[in-house]
Specification:
Blueprint: E1 2-12, H1 15-25, E2 30-33, E3 37-43, E4 46-52, E5 61-66, H2 71-80, E6 95-97, E7 101-107, E8 113-119, E9 135-145, H3 150-161, E10 164-166, E11 172-177, E12 180-186, E13 203-209, H4 212-225, E14 229-230, E15 238-243, E16 246-252, H5 260-263
Parallel strand pairs: 1-4, 5-8, 9-12, 13-16
Antiparallel strand pairs: 1-13, 2-3, 3-4, 5-9, 6-7, 7-8, 10-11, 11-12, 14-15, 15-16
């Protein structure tokens, strides 16, 4: 099964700019740095990478889960460290949804839309709260596609990767594997709360998986669908392919146990494909 977002690679116009924001302001540890690339380690199980380029790119949307008991402290910490929190049209900053959670949004220097979110059903004694904001894991990554591709994309994720769906609409769906929530959204539906146009960002997504057997099953399903993939004989723990122009890699990881989503009591956690 897919267990989590293991690595997310984005583009930036300025390595020093993202370092100032993510390291100096958000206090994310730097795990690697060169003149053209920098890696941050917001939690032990996810790496956030930026490569420098000169081509225009659309902003990405990502959301980090925090414990409900630590949400207010995280919001206050952001405010104390001069992170501008985005406002809804009515002026509020914190949004509540369905009585089960709360979230806030802010942006980095490249315009990427970041979110801190909590859900009351998430068990707080399963993963450690990391860093000044008490991050648990990377919960959401946005995947904007053309309006007529939302259904096809989400169905591929179900068929190929064993994802499950939540909040299924014509222009918006959560496709969920373990703790990883892919936000499949039409480009005609703008990101809230500031109605930011949702365009396809240049990004590479690496998903952690639970077993080699799962990877072999994915390869068989990719073959059946005629989708090309890369899998080196000397690297049987990894397979790479593209879906709707998004580069995706599945990789066997040892730093995130397969039963974590179930122990977190995520509503759609499942143990097998």
């Amino acid at each position: 099964m897919v267990t989590h977002f293991s690595r997310l690679q984005l583009q930036t116009f300025s390595i020093q700019g993202v370092k100032q924001f993510y390291h100096e302001q958000l206090a994310f540890p730097v795990s690697y740095e060169s003149d053209t690339e920098i890696h941050f380690q917001p939690t032990p199980s996810v790496t956030l990478c930026f490569t420098e380029g000169s081509e225009p790119t659309a902003p990405a949307h990502i959301a980090f889960e925090v414990a409900t008991s630590g949400f207010d402290a995280a919001v206050n910490w952001l405010g104390d460290h001069n992170v501008a929190l985005l406002k809804w049209p009515d002026g509020r900053i914190v949004d509540g949804f369905g009585g089960t959670g709360k979230n806030v949004y802010f942006r980095d220097g490249d315009g990427n839309l970041l979110e801190i979110i909590c859900h009351s059903y998430v068990q707080e004694d399963v993963l450690p709260s990391i860093g000044a904001m008490g991050l648990l894991y990377l919960r959401e990554v946005g995947f904007p596609v053309e309006a007529d591709a939302v259904v096809a994309f989400r169905e591929q994720l179900v068929r190929l990767l064993g994802f499950q769906l939540d909040k299924v609409y014509d222009n918006f769906t959560f496709a969920i594997g373990g703790t990883a929530h892919g936000v499949i959204v039409s480009k005609t539906r703008k990101w809230i709360p500031i109605a930011m146009t949702a365009l396809q960002p240049a990004m590479n997504v690496i998903l952690g998986v639970s077993s080699i057997a799962f990877l072999e099953g994915v390869k068989s399903r990719l073959d059946a669908d005629g989708i090309p993939y890369e899998s080196e004989p000397d690297a049987p723990n990894r397979v790479s392919f593209q879906l709707h122009a998004y580069p995706i890699c599945l990789e066997l990881t040892e730093d995130f146990e397969a039963d974590v989503p179930a122990r977190l009591q995520l509503p759609l956690a499942r143990q097998t494909l």
